[in-house]
Amino acid sequence: MITETYALFGRAMKKLLRSPVTIFFSLFMPLVWITLFGQLFSKFAEMPGFPTKSYMDFFTAGVVVMTVLTSAFQSGLSIVLDMDSGFLDKLLVAPINRLSILMGRLLTDGVRIIIQASIIIAVALLMGAHIKTGFLGYLMMIIIAACFGIAWAGLSNIIAIATKNSEVTMMAGMLLTFPILFMSSALMPINLQPKWMETVAKANPASYIVDGIRSLMVSATFDWALIAKAFIVIIVVALFSISGSIIMLRRVNH
Amino acid sequence: MNEAVKVEHLTKIYNHSIKAVDDISFYLKEGEAFGFLGPNGAGKTTTIKMLTTLISKTSGQAYVYGNEISSNSIAIRKLIGYTAQDIEVDEDLTGRENMILSSRLYHLSAAKARQRGNELFEILGLTEAADRSAGTYSGGMRKRLDIATALVHDPKIIFLDEPTTGLDPQSRFALWDYIKGLNQKGTTIFLTTQYMEEADNLCERLAIIDNGKIVAEGTPEHLKEEIGGDTITLEIKDSSNSGVTSRDNAVKTLTGLPNIKDIKVLDNNRLSLNAANGSYIIPEIVSLLQEQNIVLGRLEFANSSLDDVFLKYTGHELRVEEQKKKSNVMHHGRKRRS
Asked: Which residues of chain B carry a pLDDT beneath 70?
């Protein structure tokens, strides 16, 4: 299973590196957000009750999660391509574990997200954001982002395998990313949101990822409670999305 | 006799209503080249996909080297190679990278993978192109690479679903030689085709499949013998402009002639006769039709072929199906089969 996963990860990585432009497709909107909206909303930080002095310090984690959601939601496209070309059948007749087909894909998404999130964080730093926990904090931010991306990419694969349709897979990502983002703690602290949105945001897994990543930027030391919450959310999402994808993959063709 | 594949009453029903494969039974001997001959939609791909564990059966039993397809799919996957009708190679990778990927999936060591890759590139004539991106390959080369990647683990049996559909004649003939070569080296081959010529050329034994049922089975020679005669195709010119009358008249005239075993109506003005010693009765046919004032437009004579076998067992021509399919493709663009 490890050999198989590694072989398929190698295949997907080669494809990614041979068309690196795909790395930048899903990076476009987050870059627009961090450069324009970061400026536009900068006065938010002056509101009473706002947790940070600078909006950029607050906003960066939100844009990192936006990048992760956008990127992870594209994961399913590859499997639709493999279904259309018949390549998936070639994998399915081989005596390999179905999980390795999925993991080869998801690990590549993880690498892509590490590159993308690093670019976003670098731009944020240039725009005046600070990471109070330093380089180790940056590493932890990237790890949380990549793990959440892997878990979330599983959802895209469920949609992809169920619909076998690249347009639907793509649209689902585009339509869901913004509501998930707006109804979380990504753009506005939960305590400053209307009551009903606060309730939704508390139930939104993205909020916990944002809070975990943000804590590494704004607290002087690692806030293990928030980091642990982020990982618990990641594990729950991953269990659901990966087992769901495997069930779908086993039923494909039947 | 060792059976490589044994199929008993295998049936596949899609969506509780579409019977794609309808109670078929057949077997493959080890080392044999066996073929399924039939038009599009006959159930060829569905059968292959059940045997290669890609789709589940609805009922019946099938064994690949003694392993039941639904209960022992993992064991089967280790023994078989498979290429689909669509060419399944990753065009972003080079030929060699495609081979190495497949080798890794079948757990070959790096050294073994390299050696096996070179060997297969040699057999399939891809050595020079091995390090080029598969996207730059011609259709014939991509198909050969596809077959090569299905052979990395030296499978006991390879399933080839319409291996030459869509290839130009030259690539097709070259591929036939490669397939024959593989079979001579001991690989059992199960292929499907819509081409008579291909079945006749490659298969030691074949089954004719139509509408999900096997309608005939045997060696190409045996099947042709069973027809036992030559084929005379008559095209009747229509004097009264209604066609059917003249045609029916011709059928009436020719029925009962001692050498004519069978008369089939192909379309409004064509008849196909199956006759023993056909070349000797042509003069008689011509004069009989003349007596009835039936005007012959054309007469074709052919020694018995698999085409006739197909016609005899299915009641329609394979060629007609192909033409229908072609015009379909022209009207709707390339259609993927699900």
From this structure: 1, 227-228, 239-244, 304, 318-338
Whether the CB-CB separation of B106 and A95 falls below 8 Å is answered with: yes
pLDDT in tens, B195-211: 888 888 899 999 999 99
Write phi, then psi, for A252 (nearest 5 degrees).
Answer: -60, 140
Alpha carbon distance B247, B234 (integer Å): 10
Asked if A14's CB is within 8 angstroms of B77's CB, the reply is no
Tell me if B181 is assigned to some domain: yes
> Does residue B311 fall inside a structural domain?
no
B51, B91, B104, B190: which to substitute to probe chain A, counting the most A Cβ within 10 Å?
B104
- C-alpha distance from A90 to closest chain B C-alpha (Å): 7
**How far apart, in whole angstroms, are the C-alpha atoms of residue A171 and residue B145?**
35
| Interatomic CA distance for residues A185 and A188, integer angstroms | 6
* pLDDT for B240: 59
Instruction: Calculate how close chain B gets to A60, using CA atoms only, in Å.
Output: 35
Q: Output the CA–CA distances (angstroms, integers) from residue A218 to A57, A134, A141, B77, in the order listed.
A: 7, 10, 12, 53
- DSSP H helices in chain A: 2-18, 21-25, 28-32, 38-40, 55-72, 75-85, 87-93, 98-126, 134-163, 166-182, 195-203, 205-218, 224-251
Cβ neighbours of residue B323 under 8 Å, at least 6 residues apart? Answer: none
Q: Looking at the structure, tell me whether residues B196 and B96 fall in a common domain.
A: yes
Are A7 and B105 a contacting pair at CB < 8 A? yes
Quote the number of domains for chain B.
2
Q: Do A86 and B52 touch (CB under 8 A)?
A: no
Nearest to A250 by CA among A158, A176, A152, A174: A158
- Tokens 């993978």 belong to B113
Please give the ipTM for the structure prediction: 0.86
Of B49, B78, B92, the CB nearest to A95: B78
CB contact under 8 A, A85 and B86: yes
* B251 close contact with A: CB closer than 8 A: no
CATH number at residue B135: 3.40.50.300
Q: Do A84 and B336 touch (CB under 8 A)?
A: yes
Q: Using an 8 Å Cβ cutoff, are B96 and B115 in contact?
A: no
Contact criterion met (CB < 8 Å) for A254 and B55? yes
**Can you give the pLDDT at residue B331?**
39
The token pair that represents B169 in the structure block: 């004649």
Determine which of A74-78, A200-204, B230-234 has the lowest per-residue pLDDT on average.
B230-234
Whether residue B272 lies inside any domain: the answer is yes
pLDDT in tens, A133-159: 999 999 999 999 999 999 999 999 999
CA dihedral A60, A66, A71, A73 (to 10 degrees): 160
Q: From CA B281, how far away is CA B260, in angstroms rounded?
A: 9
**Residues in A touching B102 (Cβ below 8 Å):** 90, 94
Report the distance separating Cα B102 and Cα B151, nearest Å: 9
CB atoms within 10 A of CB A240: 14
Q: Which domain holds residue B155?
A: 3-219
